[in-house]
Specification:
By secondary structure, the chain is an alpha/beta fold. The protein has helices spanning 29-37, 48-53, 108-116, 119-122, 139-143, 150-153, 166-176, 182-211, 216-290, 326-437, 440-459, 488-509, 523-527, 531-553, 575-578; strands at residues 2-5, 8-11, 18-22, 54-63, 66-73, 80-84, 91-96, 147-148, 468-469, 476-477, 517-521, 562-567, 582-585.
């Protein structure tokens, strides 16, 4: 590990199977495990000193025989991790800490899962989502199996870690220990999803059934009758409308004749009015021509002065008082009389024509009214009645369809329920078959339990709490139940022994995909400092070192592994056990962060 800070650079060598970093409080022990997590893309809540002084952290890792390095800044782009070449120290690839929208870069955790060969095991392409909402198992959930924080060591926090739910933890343990495979995970997740679906369908069908009244069959029968009535009335209505169109077409000539006669009558009336007006003008002209003299002129046409009071002699002009010619007046009278005679004749003819047009129009209207009364009127009444009947049938049909809608939805839900139940039965059968293929699961569980019991027995825990592994949760428990039923020291020893069991199983059998890395934060601190506590922590360290050394020596091809312990100080151990550990001491004069 390479730590860069404002005070300089510090390089720490962890190339040993067991490394113990110890020192008093506030020297950087917890910061050290945070520095391991940080370049792996995991969240870290830095304490005051590292948050003020750290600039970057680089970890060099060996994964499946491949050397890589990861570097992450604490002050610049904290959302990016550099994948460093082990040859020239240059950045080969930039990795995102968390998925970014529209980014084609890989995420650190996904890259690490790829290197570990666990990508398809954690998220196979055909897998049903673990929790039903698109959730995927992540590197953070895997890392929780390799890191025992202070809170996890003493049981304040569940040993499965904050990153894991009970379901995801059990799934990961089963996957990495070979208790299930990806296909079994798919089937199990599908079974759970189908179980939820069946439960939802049952609740919905029960809810709808509670509010339904009447029989669906009776409603369907009544709906059939209503639809038949609607079709029959519509057919009859369309037939009557067709007859109405035919009758109306037959009556069109009468309408056209009435319209033409109305036009003729209107024109005759206009002509009669014009003839009467001409007659009135001719009559007034006769009166003027026969009157002696002319009409008096009241005002001078030039200056508009009043001419009233002037005496106009008979037969003289009212304007200039000159005597008029009697012959001319007689000619005017004759002309007026001739015009009057012509106007009278025209008025007589116009009145006659208007009367004839009135009679013809009245006759045509009578014929049209008779045709309407005898043929069109009855059809219009029948059409109105059938339209009302059709509208009523259509209304009843709509009402019945609305009443039937919940019945039909219930029927669809029942069909979907049967389909889901059939699929669920098939999935359960597949799970049974798969379990038979994974018959070695019980053997593996027995081996793990045996190793756990051997470690626990070697620790000689006070009061014999009866520690064992729960088959349902795959978490440690004691005879009284949860680990909170025992003291902190015993709880710490059980949690450490539990994680030692996983590492031991990996070293002895090699039949696991769990990375053989174990980081333990402050087991001695959590056990306590009494005499019995000191003896317990010494047994824990001694048994731990003996067990790891024994597992390595009895395995022909031991897997590469590493255990990192950080603690306040070391217990009293025999020299041969101390030599099995590579120790790094931190002091107040020589803290972790320069």
């Amino acid at each position: 590990m390479v730590i860069n800070s404002t005070g300089g650079v510090r390089t720490l060598d962890f190339a040993h199977p067991v490394v113990c970093v110890y020192g008093p409080i506030d020297t950087g022990k917890t910061t050290l495990v945070d520095c391991i997590k940080y370049p792996l893309g995991l969240p870290v809540d830095w304490r005051q000193v590292p948050s003020e002084r750290l600039t970057s952290v680089t970890v060099h890792l060996r994964i499946e025989g491949m050397d890589i390095a990861l570097r992450r800044s604490t002050i610049a782009d904290t959302g990016t991790v550099e994948l460093i070449s082990p040859y020239d120290g240059k950045a080969e690839e930039l990795l995102d800490v968390t998925p970014q929208p529209d980014s084609d870069r890989r995420v650190v955790g996904e890259a690490l899962l790829d290197l570990l060969g666990l990508s398809e095991l954690f998220a196979p392409p055909t897998a049903v989502a673990l929790l039903g909402n698109g959730a995927r198992l992540t590197f953070a959930q895997l890392y929780a199996l390799n890191y025992l924080s202070q809170d996890m060591v003493d049981g304040t926090e569940s040993v499965r870690g904050q990153a894991n739910t009970a379901q995801s933890y059990k799934t990961i343990v089963e996957l990495v220990l070979g208790l299930i495979d990806a296909e079994m995970r798919v089937l199990t997740a599908r079974r759970d999803d189908l179980g939820q679906t069946v439960s939802q369908f049952k609740r919905r069908t029960e809810t709808i059934s509670e509010f339904l009244t009447g029989s669906a069959a009776e409603l369907e029968e009544e709906l059939t009758r209503s639809r038949s009535e609607e079709r029959d009335t519509l057919t009859a209505l369309e037939e009557l409308k067709g007859r109405m169109r035919a009758v109306t077409t037959f009556a069109d000539p009468l309408r056209q004749r009435v319209a033409a006669l109305e036009g003729t009558h209107s024109r005759a009336r206009e002509e009669e009015k014009a003839a009467q007006a001409a007659l009135s003008l001719a009559q007034r002209a006769i009166q003027r021509a026969q009157q002696p003299g002319t009409d008096p002129v009241l005002h001078c046409p030039s200056c508009r002065q009043a001419l009233t009071g002037r005496v106009v002699p008979e037969g003289a002009c009212a304007l200039c008082l000159s005597e008029l010619d009697p012959g001319v007046r007689d000619a005017v009278v004759q002309a007026a009389e001739a015009a009057l005679a012509t106007a009278q004749q025209r008025a007589i003819e116009a009145a006659k024509t208007a009367g004839e047009a009135q009679d013809a129009l009245a006759q045509a209207r009578a014929e049209l009214e008779e045709r309407t009364r005898l043929e069109i009127g009855p059809l219009a009444g029948q059409i109105e009645q059938l339209s009302a009947a059709h509208a009523g049938a259509r209304t009843r049909t709509g009402m019945l369809e609305r009443q039937l809608d919940p019945h039909r939805r219930l029927l669809e839900l029942q069909r979907a329920l049967r389909t889901a139940e059939e699929e669920l039965r098939g999935v359960r059968e597949d799970i049974k078959t798969r379990k038979n293929l994974l018959s070695g699961r019980q053997t593996t569980l027995a081996e793990i339990e045996e190793q756990f019991s051997a470690i626990i027995d070697g620790l000689s825990l006070p009061n014999e709490p009866g520690a064992r592994i729960d088959h349902n949760s795959l978490l440690p428990k004691v005879r009284a139940g949860k680990l909170t039923k025992v003291g902190h020291g015993v709880r710490t020893a059980i949690n450490v022994a539990y994680r030692m069991t996983f590492l031991s199983h990996a070293l002895v059998t090699g039949a696991t995909d769990l990375p053989s890395l174990l980081i333990i934060d402050s087991p001695r601190k959590n056990v306590g400092y009494g005499d019995e506590d000191q003896q317990l922590i010494a047994r824990l360290y001694a048994h731990f070192l003996d067990h790891i050394a024994g597992a390595r020596s009895h395995t022909p091809h031991a897997r590469p592994h590493q255990v990192i312990i950080v603690d306040n100080d070391l217990p009293s151990l025999p020299p041969h056990l101390r030599r099995q550990m590579h120790t790094i001491e931190l002091t107040r004069d020589n803290p972790l962060v320069p």
